[in-house]
Amino acid sequence: MPEISRFFGIVIRMYFRDHNPPHFHASYGDDTALIDIRSSTVISGNLPPRALGLVSEWVAIHRRELSADWENAQADKPLLPIPPLL
Predict the structure, then answer these.
(1) What is the pLDDT of residues 4-57, one digit of tens each?
(2) Which is it for the CA torsion 73, 66, 6, 8, positive or negative?
(3) Complete DSSP assignment for 20-58
């Protein structure tokens, strides 16, 4: 599963040809969650509140890039790295 971003100990990954709805996988320590790209909500899993807040902020900034990577992943095309939250 390609890593597309990393910030503040949070790792963002996306699978090729993954199931809908469009989402990505976020991990922080031992916690992982699937996050919906459109709504920034947790589909499954769990992240600590602070990490989830940072992920939500990052999604709001990079939603277009995430959607483009989702489309690339569905078409088995390379995923582009997305800048971290600074």
Answers:
(1) 999 999 999 999 999 999 999 999 999 999 999 999 999 999 999 999 999 999
(2) negative
(3) SSPEEEEEETTEEEEEETTT--EEEE---HHHHHHHHHH
The Cα 64–Cα 80 span in angstroms is 12
- Phi and psi at 85, nearest 5°, equal -75, 130
CA separation for the pair 50, 15 (Å, rounded): 25
pLDDT of residue 58: 98
Residue 1 pLDDT: 79
Residues 43, 35 contacting (CB under 8 angstroms): yes
What is the value of pTM for the model shown?
A: 0.95
Contact 24, 39 (CB under 8 A): no
Q: Tell me how far apart the alpha carbons of residues 35 and 25 are, in angstroms, rounded to a whole number.
A: 6
